[in-house]
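Follow-up to my post from last week.
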Amino acid sequence: GDSVTQMEGPVTLSEEAFLTINCTYTATGYPSLFWYVQYPGEGLQLLLKATKADDKGSNKGFEATYRKETTSFHLEKGSVQVSDSAVYFCALSDPNAGGTSYGKLTFGQGTILTVHP
Amino acid sequence: DADVTQTPRNRITKTGKRIMLECSQTKGHDRMYWYRQDPGLGLRLIYYSFDVKDINKGEISDGYSVSRQAQAKFSLSLESAIPNQTALYFCATSADGASIYEQYFGPGTRLTVT
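User reply:
Got it. Predicted complex:
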């Protein structure tokens, strides 16, 4: 079945450092890929998405490029802020899934990011 | 006001008790989901509903049941709680069509079973 693997956390950075959180996936067909973010005490919210190979999703200074050849969707940000401290989840969904599988998301295990001033 | 609300936000209960977690949404979405979050395991889908008359099991439905009382309400029940059901539970919603994979999450319910 479909699966998502994220780099082990937690990740601790100083403010203005460069961030990479690795995400690789296994799926049949051509999934859509997502990054969700969970700020402390809150539910998840969609950060960015990409629906086909070589697409780049971006939002709030974060970027991720859909790499079909390496089955990856790594999250990057050039200069992190303290306010970026959160848990980041990579997820996929197969838009070709039919029946009751349509619309379901498969999440990775999450990566905790802590940014210090 | 929040679009997706969950009650209670925190609950401590004893083994064997029945407990219900409630979710309400004002987004007008047909699709609703229940997930549990455990450290190191990410989110796992318990049940999901595409409309009031459609309920589907997720990957970890054993020990749980749900009720979709209306388009806006989706409740999760633990018939006889056990300690390994201690987790953070999230309700989510999504619209049909092109935005189907953009799920909107509630703030979560932290459940502890002693």
